[in-house]
């Protein structure tokens, strides 16, 4: 259960009155109290990813199921996560998104909460350069298993091309296989046609490989039907849902994604209060009778 920020502030103040001033070198580097207690929609999501066993159990379950389905797909030459035709004789491959699918960036998100700031390309670039992302539970074991079976591992990420070197170094330090003499690391803007929509990169892989599984944390990691209204996304999901838990595997990411931005029309120029109001409006609440 979360404790009230006001109670925490009162407790901290009382401790200072009793103990007296703390030496500067003994003071932890924390954000101002006002920043820590300011409303931030990331709080529960970042806390869940960093501190809950539920997050770990969820991720482990997704990758454990993926391993079972991988063995089935390798035994069935007709199986394809992209509904390919004529791919039976192609070597098998798996496509994985990186952020919140393979790489855990919850420390960055938590930093936004405690500093009272919002995402920016500047702080994100600094986070990538720091190479401190951790492994999503289960991902390393799955990828190593797939690699041991002769499956080519492709990382299809919307990290930008100029962030590739730092990202590779982060992954290599965690022990992830990087593909040998084949470029298996496909970043945004690496080629002119490789934009945020990952369709062109999935098609690029599918020319030479039978894609037997895909992993992501966002609907657009699997399909170009992720854009549109909430209702349009629901319709697309209903048409594609047979893939999920068969050859498409979704990791839980409550911190950000197209599910959130859809509620405020993908208008990132809106203030946080305006976005929050539209998100509340998108809810389908139950309220008790008077």
TrEMBL record:
PROSITE patterns noted in UniProt: PROKAR_LIPOPROTEIN
Origin superkingdom: Bacteria
Signal sequence coordinates: 1-24
Segments traversing the membrane: none
Keyword entries, A-Z: Signal
Pfam families, alphabetized: Acid_phosphat_B
GO cellular component: cell outer membrane
Keyword Lipid metabolism belongs to the record: no
Annotated InterPro entries: Acid_phosphat_B-like, HAD-like_sf, HAD_sf, Lipo_e_P4
Protein name in UniProt: Acid phosphatase
Gene: lppC
